[in-house]
Amino acid sequence: MKNDLILRTLRGEATERTPVWMMRQAGRYLPEYIQLREKYSFFERCQNPELACVITLQPVDIIGVDAAILFSDILVVPQAMGLEVQLVEKLGPLLPQPIQSGKDLQRVRVPDVAETLGYVFDAIKLIKKELNGRVPLIGFAGAPWTLLCYMVQGKGSKTFDEAKAFCYQQPETAHALLQMITDTTIAYLKGQVAAGADTLQLFDSWGGLLGKQDFETFSLQYIRQIVAALKELVPVIVFAKGAWGSLSEMAATGAAGLGIDWCIEPEMARKLAGNNVTLQGNFDPAKLLAPVSQIEKEAKAMLKAFGKERHIANLGHGILPNVPVDHAKAFVNTIKEYSFSNI
Ligand SMILES: Cc1c2[nH]c(c1CCC(=O)O)Cc1[nH]c(c(CCC(=O)O)c1C)Cc1[nH]c(c(CCC(=O)O)c1C)Cc1[nH]c(c(C)c1CCC(=O)O)C2
Hints:
By secondary structure, the chain is an alpha/beta fold. The protein has a single domain, classed as TIM Barrel. It is built from 15 helices and 9 strands. The strands form 2 sheets. Strands 1-4-5-6-7-8-9 form a 7-stranded parallel beta sheet. Strands 2-3 form a two-stranded antiparallel sheet. Helix 7 packs parallel to helix 10 (171-195), helix 8 packs across helix 10 and helix 14 packs parallel to helix 15. The longest helix is centred in the middle third of the chain and has 25 residues, at 171-195. It is globular and about 60 Å long. Coproporphyrinogen III (CP3) binds next to strand 3.
């Protein structure tokens, strides 16, 4: 592989500079993506390996990031498990028949992933061929807790209060569902690795909604199973947004990398996570809307705070759709140029 900076950083090896990619780097801030969006629906773009491949490569070619991340969505797993998932303009994900009781569990299953998610594996094979060793390919899945949030609440939410009520009122049903999601996810991620994914990221976008003990009960014990099943195959990155109170427990799962958001300082994250794990993050995505000179200044300050070792530069959450392409480029270029010599 020509550029394996991210893989070496995940293994804890010293690198000539800090690698960089951006969560949600393939998306609506890119005019090239918007063009395809006009012609094909969201899940068409996910299910067609040629389209998924073209979209995955866009940020590699246009922005110059050090990794490609598979173009897909965390919600393809609930779909494969038997739930209908729509993506509604301006509203976001909609699951018209969410899970609300033990009886509803009869409508979901642990599927044969080759049958239901084979299109993802085909996309990965195609992407690997087209990348031709330029940069590594990151595969991904949603963490079980975050998927439960959507499967129970039925749509996006700031609080996911219905999903939490479900866990607190019907814990046995919640755990049965979380285990089904976990089993599906392990098979799915093993399939991604077999198809060619070089590393994997688990997105627990709503991990920060749970207190520390509930995070252990409803999220971390399932993340632990997934990491254990995959970590001997490829390095695994766990991104549990807002759950930094559990960084030390997440490091103990054997994850190679931990994603952090901008609400925790790099020095504090390092103290909590220890020295045996790579930290990834943590630029505030909204700061990409600031003037370029300020982006450059703050990106350098971020590099300094993390230090030279075991850091993958990234945003602390997904890139926003209204970010100018030049600003995204300025962020990536600052990391690449500045981290060569100056940290
Ligand atoms: C919670 C979550 C979802 N999806 C994802 C998460 C976890 C990460 C996070 O917290 O941001 C993960 C995801 N979604 C997408 C990717 C592709 C790879 C990448 O470039 O990072 C990844 C890794 C594409 C997408 N997934 C979605 C889009 C926008 C679709 C469009 O073109 O309209 C993209 C590019 C749709 C989606 N999918 C989801 C939501 C809430 C939405 C609607 C909101 C939004 O539009 O951002 C669920």
